[in-house]
Design brief:
mainly alpha; 50% helix; single chain
């Protein structure tokens, strides 16, 4: 499922969406591009495996595998190395909707969309396994690489759509949205865009000025004027 690139201007909007996950300390691989550290401080040996918040272990493996099929490793690392499945699990668990084609207009609207995403992910995983079992005789992860590719292509490309696969196409489109946002908000994803400015600007990218207080628990409360300005800005 290669070719899931984005326009550079879209990266800014995706960064805004993914910033919701930036402070979560439980990620093993996924790292938000603008977090306090651009490179995790733990070594690969010391880093703890990610513990899914929403998906079961088997569901998480499926999400990770499909994300890697959507953005595979080629000349650049793919979705698995970027930890995209961790991002998806965190966002779904916290009811953060990711939709590349619609705007969220209110908090209640965002919550409704996030809750709907939870339902759609669970039913989508069940659908793709049932469809895979029907078509190939195995759950999706137990199919051959060619069978998996064929099954997803029927959901990804209009020319290959088949009747009665609407639910699967909806799941795949949602998977693609979350995967693209999760990937292109990491340093790995941004560098894969090939934007020359990233190579020179990245080391100078301004981070939080309070790295010793990532939750900002000790910052003074804003005065009324600052609070009003923040409210207007948002």
């Amino acid at each position: 499922m290669g070719g899931q690139g984005i326009a550079r201007r879209e990266a800014l909007r995706f960064i805004g969406i993914a910033s919701a996950a930036a402070a979560f300390p439980g990620f093993s691989q996924w790292a938000f591009a603008c977090s306090h550290q651009s490179t995790p401080s733990l070594t690969d040996a010391a880093r703890q495996p990610y513990k899914p918040l929403f998906f079961s272990a088997e569901q998480f493996r499926l999400i990770e595998h499909i994300a890697e099929m959507i953005i595979p490793a080629d000349n650049t690392p793919g979705a698995k190395e970027a930890g995209v499945a961790e991002f998806i699990d965190f966002m779904v668990a916290n009811r953060v909707a990711v939709n590349a084609r619609s705007e969220i207009r209110s908090t209640s609207d965002a919550i409704r969309q996030g809750e709907a995403a939870q339902t759609r992910f669970v039913s989508g995983i069940e659908w793709i396994n049932a469809h895979s079992k029907s078509q190939c005789g195995h759950w999706f992860l137990d199919c051959s690489a060619e069978q998996q590719k064929s099954l997803l292509e029927q959901l990804a490309y209009k020319a290959k759509f088949k009747p009665t696969t609407e639910a699967g196409r909806d799941f795949f489109q949602m998977m693609r949205d979350y995967t693209v946002v999760g990937y292109y908000t990491t340093k790995i994803g941004l560098e894969s865009l090939g934007y020359p400015g990233l190579r020179t600007a990245w080391p100078k990218m301004p981070g939080c000025s309070h790295p010793d207080d990532p939750e900002h628990a000790h910052l003074p409360k804003p005065n009324e004027e600052t609070a009003a300005a923040f409210k207007i800005a948002n």
